[in-house]
Structure formats: structure tokens, C-alpha cells
Amino acid sequence: MSDPQMPVTIVMIEDDEGHARLIEKNIRRAGISNEIRHFTDGTSAMDYLYNDKDGPALNGPALILLDLNLPDMSGTDILNKIKASPLKRTPVVVLTTTDDKVEIQRCYDLGCNVYITKPVNYEAFAVAIRQLGLFLSVIQIPSADEAG
Known about the structure:
Elements: E1 9-13, H1 17-29, E2 36-39, H2 42-51, H3 56-59, E3 62-66, H4 75-83, E4 92-96, H5 101-110, E5 114-117, H6 122-138, H7 144-147
Parallel strand pairs: 1-2, 1-3, 3-4, 4-5
Helix pairs in contact: 1-6
């Protein structure tokens, strides 16, 4: 039985340590204290999502921050797998340097909730992350019981 007030774990899949630190710093600055699990490749992230006893597939709500350019698999492949699985209602925020319109549309078509382009301008990035923080604070994550 899952607790409806169970805190949402933020799963960050980002291979660039600098970007990961910046994302985490801005999430904290936005007043979000949820646990952040950081993975630098898709393989370990997918293992956590589906096989870890504390992972979302077995243990409840998460929000996924997904970089598209990973060393071992493409973020769009991960997004596709998540949205075609029992985790399909898990919100996915794509955070990437790609601002290609076709790629952005593809991510929305695959089911991402928010697409944020990582600008080189860190202030703009900080603003985007703060907006993400607002998104996190209002989003309703279905409990495991509802997800069916």
C-alpha cells in the first residue's frame, strides 16, 4: 500500500557532471527538497527505475529529468521505453542542449511533459529550472494504487 503523501523522487539522467550540479543547485534554490537520484548513463538509470527495490516501478512516485545525449543510449529511447511501460504516467522532463524542432516534437509525441533546452546562458537555464520547480510543486503524481 503506498502512502499518498509519499515524497516524489527526482531521477536525474545526465552525463555532464557540471550540468547535473547546476540542475540540482537550481532545484534546491527553487525550494524543492525531494531526494535526487543522479545517473550518468541510461543503463544504470533504467536498472534503478525498473529493478531497484527503492525504484519507481516497485516503490512509487518519481519525476524523471532526462538528458537526450547519453554515452550508452539515446534519451529518446529511454523516453519511449518509459512511456510504453508501467511507468507511463511518470512525468518526464527533457533537459538537453538540442533545440532542433523535429527532436522537440518527437519528444512531445513520445510523451514528455516538459522540454527544456539547456542554454549556455546559465541565468536562462536557472530561470527554466525555477519554472520546473514550480511545475514540480503543483504536479499531481498518481499513487501506485491509482496507476493500476
